[in-house]
Amino acid sequence: MKVSFTQVDTACMVIDINGFVIVTDPAFDTEGTVYEGPRTLYKTGSPRLQPKDIGPVDLVLLSHDQHKDNLDNAGREFIKTVKQVISTPGAVERLAQNNVTGLNEWESISIATAKVPGLRITATPCQHAPTQEQTKISGHVIGFMIEWEGQQGALYVSGDTVYFDGIEEIAKRFKVHTAVLHVGKAGFPDINYMPLTFTTEMAIQTARLMNVNKFIPTHFEGWKHFNEKPEYLHEQVTHSDIKEKLLWLQPGTPAVIEI
Ligand SMILES: [Zn+2]
């Protein structure tokens, strides 16, 4: 089936599967927005598309709602307008909207649509920091395995996670064709820049472990707390053994592949 990927901003991407439109981790705020909190966040880039450019959306996959880079202020308004949102059980409570479904790790939901027969979403485990203490502070996050009938292999969207044994379990349970991985090495000075999302190295390791056909990096631009630059990421991947697998998206421009 033809699938198009359009990078919008951060981990916000439009994934169009034969006309069934999914938006991941909605981020539509513009450059210069400041988010006060226990750790103040700074938006340093703007989204390439706004909801009006995307048009009707069938489904939002929200890896977690508690962090502004995965669901910003405009994203929060946007998800009130869509048919269905899949996220964590905690997000269901906090967002208190009747269009949100919560999944725990390995739980699946089937979605009836003539556009994508057999469409099924399974929540995959994430660990949003390398230490237990910081993982608790970061809170519950899920990734997504997207499957349908006649697929060459599954489509995996990692969510915010570091490399941990859950990634190995995912690789055991699923044959992944395309992996969308949240990179950028998010981190903060008060915790000595410990990686809260994949480093480039972890992402390469994950893509290699899953033996993917395509590796699509996302979540590496638009915020001050992302500590690996796109140039570094691109350079490292194009000099690795998975260089042939890289699908490097140009923000706002759809890339179409067969899955
Ligand atoms: Zn996060």
Describe this structure in words.
The structure is a single chain. The protein has 259 residues and is of the alpha/beta class. Helices cover 20% and strands 26% of the residues. It has 7 helices and 15 strands. The strands form 3 sheets. Strands 8-7-6-3-2-1-15 form a 7-stranded mixed sheet, covered by helices on one side. A 6-stranded mixed sheet has the order 9-10-11-12-13-14, with helices on one face. Strands 4-5 form a two-stranded antiparallel sheet. Strand 2 (12-17) and strand 3 form a beta hairpin. The structure holds zinc ion. Zinc ion binds next to loops.
Helix and strand arrangement:
Elements: E1 2-9, E2 12-17, E3 20-24, E4 34-35, E5 41-42, H1 51-54, E6 59-61, H2 73-78, E7 85-87, H3 89-95, E8 100-102, E9 108-110, E10 120-125, H4 132-138, E11 142-147, E12 154-157, H5 165-173, E13 176-182, H6 200-209, E14 214-218, H7 230-238, E15 255-258
Parallel strand pairs: 3-6, 6-7, 7-8, 12-13, 13-14
Antiparallel strand pairs: 1-2, 1-15, 2-3, 4-5, 9-10, 10-11, 11-12
